[in-house]
């Protein structure tokens, strides 16, 4: 196949009216028709395998899963957050900087090989442009497994029975835990470790934290561990308002 089939033109589209930094641009890749057809075939094949390697917490880009499942689940999780009698709990909304160019590709390839993907296929997929969301949720699966492996992590009172730690929509994550110092420190550690492995970091300015069952003083102390501000419900998640009441 001629090398020019892979030729692409990258154009930067500003996200804001007067961009000042590279973070305020979005790269758009213009590919030729042959490249797009091949990439689409590979993307469809990858998508068909995701349900076998991605946990139930990821509600998008995976066949037979619905975005509404994540919304309804999160509504159930935050219901009752206005009650002072609730057991201590925390919902942490984290926005991951979705800059595909910063992903450490060697890390992605290693993860895909561990998941059972052929070595050549994983490296070829990393060079594509039509399936970053699929590759992104594969990387984020590592984040979930890292946190789940922490023996001292304390589950959210509604999540322990089903071993649920987070609900995800690509890079839009809601982490659920008990509201205590130990769990907050573990989340901070896992965020740092994951960042070193993948080069993906949380966007703290777009992240938020919601507490129930703790005093204002306790909430302030816990919030300071991660440096993420405290907000009160309702909050919009995937276009829907999550409230403390059904």
Structure description:
This protein has 246 residues and is an alpha+beta fold. The chain is 37% helix and 17% strand. The chain has seven helices and eight strands. The chain has helices at 33-49, 67-78, 105-114, 119-125, 132-148, 181-198, 216-226; strands at 8-14, 25-31, 89-95, 166-169, 172-177, 208-212, 235-237, 240-242. Strands 4-5-3-6 form a four-stranded antiparallel sheet, with helices on one face. A two-stranded antiparallel sheet has the order 1-2. The chain has a two-stranded antiparallel ribbon with strand order 7-8. It is globular. The model has no long low-confidence stretch (mean pLDDT 86). It comes from Lithospermum erythrorhizon. This is Reverse transcriptase domain-containing protein. InterPro entries: RT_dom (IPR000477). Residues 1-242 form the Reverse transcriptase domain.
Q: In what range is the share of β-strand residues? A: 15-25%
Percent helix = 25-40%
Strand order of the largest sheet: 4-5-3-6
Computed Rg: 20 Å
In DSSP terms, counting alpha (H) and pi (I) runs of 4 or more, how many helices? 7
The number of distinct β-strands equals: 8
Major beta sheet summary: 4 strands, antiparallel
Reading the helices and strands in chain order gives EEHHEHHHEEHEHEE
Output mean pLDDT: 86
Question: What gap, in angstroms, lies between the N and C termini?
Answer: 58 Å
């Amino acid at each position: 196949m001629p090398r020019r089939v892979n030729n692409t033109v990258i154009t930067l589209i500003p996200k804001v009216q007067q961009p000042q930094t590279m973070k305020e641009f979005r790269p758009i890749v213009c590919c030729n028709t042959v490249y797009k057809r091949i990439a689409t075939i590979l993307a469809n094949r990858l998508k068909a395998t995701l349900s076998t390697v991605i946990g139930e917490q990821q509600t998008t880009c995976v066949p037979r899963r619905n975005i509404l499942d994540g919304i309804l689940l999160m509504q159930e999780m935050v219901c009752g957050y206005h009650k002072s009698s609730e057991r201590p709990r925390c919902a942490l909304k984290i926005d991951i900087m979705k800059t595909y160019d910063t992903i450490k590709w060697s890390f992605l390839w290693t993860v895909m090989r561990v998941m059972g993907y052929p070595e050549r296929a994983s490296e070829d997929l990393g060079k594509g442009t039509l399936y970053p969301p699929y590759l992104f949720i594969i990387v984020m699966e590592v984040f979930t497994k890292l946190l789940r492996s922490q023996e001292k992590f304390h589950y959210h009172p509604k999540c322990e029975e089903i071993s649920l730690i987070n609900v995800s929509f690509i890079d839009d994550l809601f982490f659920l835990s008990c509201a205590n110092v130990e769990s907050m420190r573990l989340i901070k550690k896992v965020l740092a470790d994951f960042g070193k492995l993948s080069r993906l970091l949380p966007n703290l300015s777009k992240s938020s934290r919601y507490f129930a069952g703790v005093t204002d003083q306790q909430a302030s102390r816990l919030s300071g561990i991660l440096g993420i501000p405290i907000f009160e419900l309702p909050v919009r998640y995937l276009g829907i308002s999550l409230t403390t009441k059904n």
